[in-house]
Amino acid sequence: MPGQQRQQPGIAVGFVAHSAKCRRRRIRCDRIRPQCTACVTSGVECIVRDSCPLRGPKKGYLKTLQKRIEELESQLEKQGTSPAPTCQTVDNDSSTDNNENQTTTPETTDILQLQAAPVEFPFPMVEPWGCFDGSYTSELLQLPLVESLPDLVQIPMESGLLISPMMHNDLDQLYFDRAYAFAPVIHTHRYRSWSKQPNKSKQRTCLQYAMWTLASSLSSQFHVQGCKLYEKTRQLLHELEAEEPCHQISLEQTQAWALLSIYELTCQDFHRGMMSAGRAFRLIQMMRLYELDLPRTPHTMQLDQYQRQLTPGQEDWVDIETKRRTFWFAYLIDRFTSMVDGLHMFFDERLIRTRLPAPEANFASNRPTDMSFLADVVPEVSVEWPHNNLSPFTECVIGATMCGRVLQHKQNAPTRPCEEFCSRHRALNALLAQRIRTLRVYASLEYPDPIIAFVALAAQIDVLLLYDLIESKPLGTGAEGTQLVQALHAEHQQQALDAVTDISLLVAVLSQHFQQMHPLTPILLLLGARFSQSHPELNDAYIKLMPSILTMLQASMGLNKLAQNFLQLLKPQGDTWCGFT
Length: 581
What we know:
Distance between the termini: 59 Å
């Protein structure tokens, strides 16, 4: 209404008339005295302040601060260090100072002019996997050199890399929190017993830097240091190989190359990662880790004596189990990376005489247990799977084995009708069907486990590869070959459609756990996308599968460079998928 005041009459306008509790809770106060309604309701004393303290610094504070700055500048000049550019402050104590004309010199800048100047970001924007060499300089970030601060504790730096005790602990914890889930090859307690020793061996130093390098790629906090850690790790490994005698092979050296290959696959270059993985494979072959549990014979006893000469020292069950895990970790890398281009695998499944990894509880607490061999757990024919007390790492080994068998089956496909090929094809498909039913409970939205979901995704991709093999590989032009193709096609078509639906659900499970996702997951997504590209006639399956895969790869680009590389391979000419141009 005209003439009506907008505010109620009271002690003052603003927060002064409000009670302290209403002001703290940021609610409207009805300003009833002696107690407002909110205070009466909550049963507390209503306190109203009559005045508010003045904002800003106290009178004379800016002058005192300016004097202290001048004293510090004079001390720096006496020590021979040029002072940093200072800003001339505005004295609010005297009203006459505001009317004076202030001139700006190269050493002083008006504070008002600084606020009006455009803001410059002090660091360049880099990709998460990019390297920051420290060559960027900014006038807004002028820090004193470390040498000019005698009160600080100096920590030795190598190649511009500073590892503080806090960073040491953070990287160790980061590895065991995130990387250990897919690379459980290091015993936690034994690693911590020697990780901070100043006189540890060069092999252990290489392993430690490789662990830190991989851990840095799993956190945005250490992305800048990750490239320097990577360069230092490769330098240490090359220096170790150049030493004499060169035949001294250690398990730590093998583990370092295997961990470094994962970092290169996901953060550097796929082919460079394959080369580093090949180094680890050769060291494993020279150490004969693929036959650790071979029955003892006079010949094997001589081999054991030779191995003890290469790697001297007493071994207990934890050491042997660590060797087993190192072999199976390399086995996983071999199987999954070979599927990208259909390469021949390095390790022959028929020659493996090493038991499967023990459960995590036994490995951590040093409780020996005898595990089965791979041939006993993964049968050749369709029988009931022995699925008791298997760790996620062991499930990954079984999943990699099935991928290897499907890949080998595809490589050995005949050019003419063959009953043996058809029977082997049906046996593989039956094994996969049983395995999918077993894993479906452990890879659902109700029980999300990123590692088990990765294994279940591998089984579904195997089904698609078997179906694609039947359609793309001719088994002859005669009537017999045509009948075989039609029979297999009828058997697997519905299974392939069901696999496409399950893959979309598994991708939804993995999208909720990006940080815990297996680093080789983009390989399986690439194979699924290739199947969708080669089968456009499956309209419903194509619509469901391809957008979810591309969205998943796009979301993983910041954490895994494999996703970026595979998106470039899947990019259609003159088309757009899910916002990807």
